[in-house]
Amino acid sequence: MEFPTLEDTVGNTPLVRLQRITAGRNNTLLAKLEGDNPAGSVKDRPALSMIREAEARGEIEPGDTLIEATSGNTGIALAMAAAIKGYRMVLIMPDSASSERKQAMAAYGAELITVTRQQGMEGARDLAERMVAEGEGKPLNQFANPDNPLAHYCGTGPELWRQTEGTLTHFVSSMGTTGTIMGVSRYFKEVAPQVQIVGLQPSDGASIAGIRRWPEAYLPSIFDASRVDTVLDIGQHEAEQHMRRLAREEGIFAGVSSGGALAGALRIAERVENAVIAFIVCDRGDRYLSTGLFAPGV
Q: What is the C-alpha to C-alpha distance for residues 104 and 82, in angstroms, rounded to an integer?
């Protein structure tokens, strides 16, 4: 008997029906629990995909140094994948990231470099590019790497179609690198183009981990606006409120971007009838405890 490895446990995450948060109008709300991946987020999928595909092309090999800019979840997933496969992983991130995220990366053996909150992810990406140009390591570059959405084209999309037995009508996802929504959309535009693809971006002034409104110069090159049917702006308070609703009304302990995804799904549900609406629960809530977002009385 050949036993599975940790890599084999990535993907095929549960899709569960919400029971107390109702959408009315005979709509069904379904949550895709990506926190059940081994490193705790949807980013486990592209992290392994980017490394596997680069290995297959002969671009990297165990022992190499990999460099990546990240706001958190991709870094944790890459740190796990590097530990599995034997790479030195250097991660660059804003120092505003939660302590749980930083400690998780370090636990897997990754080396962390931080930029200031003001520099943000744009500054982290700039530094990663400079380090690669100076020969300090090899890039994966989740923002421009087609192997990022490939993971969702081959995995997340087909899983959703199988799990809903072909009844899915709407797919809702936060947009950060946009890898999730691009890969899932590509799948459905080919297989079931009637499925509506809904993307979420932060309202002006909102700071929601995992959801970005990129300046034009930093827009991920993997993003194709034509693959998103509807874009919704999500406010910070709205995302945090719905994050807490997921935990307190459904027992789904997740992060802020997942609250934003629920908020978006509920907005869609107000407009339609007899729909099957699935949204991505990107990660687990335990990596946000130090932020105070789940504090008693909040």
A: 13
Using CA atoms, how far apart are residues 298 and 293, in angstroms rounded to an integer? 7
Per-residue burial over 55-81, b if 16 or more Cβ lie within 10 Å, else e, is: eeeeebeeebbbbbbbbbbbbbbbbbb
Pairing of strands 15-17, 196-202: unpaired
> How many Å apart are CA 225 and CA 240, to the nearest integer?
26
Query: Angle at Cα 224 formed by Cα 219 and Cα 228, nearest 5°?
Result: 110
Q: Are 256 and 237 in contact (CB under 8 A)?
A: no
Which of 107, 65, 106, 69 shows the shortest CA–CA distance to 88? 65
Give the distance between the most distant pair of CA atoms in the chain. Answer: 57
Count CA atoms within 13 Å of residue 224 on its CB side.
Answer: 12
CA distance 228 to 262: 17
Cα 21–24–25 angle (5° rounding)?
A: 155
Name the residues annotated as catalytic: 43, 257
Residue 263 neighbours by CB under 8 Å, 6+ apart: 234, 238, 239, 241, 242
pLDDT, one tens digit for every residue, the chain (298 residues)? 999 999 999 999 999 999 999 878 899 999 999 999 999 999 999 999 999 999 999 999 999 999 999 878 999 999 999 999 999 999 999 888 888 889 999 999 999 999 998 898 889 999 999 999 999 999 999 999 999 999 999 999 999 999 999 999 999 999 999 999 999 999 999 999 999 999 999 998 888 888 888 888 889 999 999 999 999 999 999 999 999 999 999 999 999 999 999 999 999 999 999 999 999 999 999 988 888 888 887 7
- DSSP codes of every residue in 39-57: TSBTTHHHHHHHHHHHHHT
Three-state SS for 237-254 is HHHHHHHHHHHHHHCCCC
0.90 cut: is pTM over it?
Answer: yes
